Task: inverse folding
């Protein structure tokens, strides 16, 4: 379980990245959803003991991430957004180096690495230089690292940013096979809906909403989104939310009708953005 209590981070330039954030993440796959700059990466860096908070507390399975950082590091694995493989090193070499750095013996590291690479579908290319792999395969190397560590909790920061749709699906399928609890940050709505059991929406370092996808969508149950008509404005576009019967009356009226998604939760919270 992950808990934060009034967690705050203010950088030297006075930017408030986290603003008294209090949240509990206890699902199999928890998602931190928000716009770019919402505080997602800052939160995961603090939780994974890579960054000190300005004030407040954070706990991983009851361990304080500041005063008990060494103990925390033994039970977590963190794959940062900016992680990129070393081109000439193979997937197997990446995993063995990672596991020996975590304290495993060479023989156990080799066995764990091969098992993890087989699990993510990289076994046949485990000796191939990573710069010859696709974008999706490169990201799966890091997911394999997390799997091989057998950590209690894995942090995945924006794991599919910059990937093409097929590569993104490859990474999604791999994440779904992981046995560890996962904390995933993303700004992709479909990724959050596809992978996450519980979602914490944050903006400007504050918690805006928390719940399962179904719970977050409950206020919009039975409705659809109408683009081109309404009082809600997103840029130059007018929006409204109507029930399905009303939507039928609007067919062929020059509007676009779309099903409800987490994007609409963000819109109604005033957090709409375009990728």
Result:
């Amino acid at each position: 379980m992950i808990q934060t209590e009034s967690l705050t981070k203010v950088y030297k330039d006075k930017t408030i990245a986290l603003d008294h954030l209090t949240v509990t993440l206890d699902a199999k796959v928890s998602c931190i959803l928000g716009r770019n700059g919402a505080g997602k990466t800052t939160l995961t860096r603090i939780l994974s003991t890579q960054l000190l908070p300005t004030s407040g507390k954070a706990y991983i399975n009851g361990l304080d991430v500041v005063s008990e950082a060494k103990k925390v590091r033994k039970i977590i694995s963190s794959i940062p957004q900016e992680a990129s493989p070393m081109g000439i090193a193979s997937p197997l070499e990446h995993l063995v180096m990672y596991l020996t750095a975590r304290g495993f013996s060479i023989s156990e590291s080799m066995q764990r690495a091969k098992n993890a690479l087989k699990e993510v579908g990289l076994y046949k290319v485990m000796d191939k230089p990573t710069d010859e792999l696709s974008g999706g395969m490169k990201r799966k190397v890091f997911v394999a690292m997390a799997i091989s560590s057998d950590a209690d909790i894995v942090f995945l920061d924006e794991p599919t940013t910059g990937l093409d749709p097929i590569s993104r699906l490859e990474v999604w399928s791999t994440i779904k096979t992981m046995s560890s609890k996962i904390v995933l940050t993303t700004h992709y709505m479909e990724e959050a809906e596809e992978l996450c059991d519980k979602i914490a929406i944050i903006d400007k370092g504050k918690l805006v909403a928390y719940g399962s996808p179904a719970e977050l969508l409950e206020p919009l149950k039975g409705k659809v989104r109408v683009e081109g008509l309404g009082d809600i404005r997103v840029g130059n576009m007018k929006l409204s939310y109507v029930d399905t019967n009303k939507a039928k009356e609007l067919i062929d009226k020059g509007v676009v009708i779309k099903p409800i998604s987490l994007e609409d939760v963000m819109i109604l919270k005033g957090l709409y953005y375009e990728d």
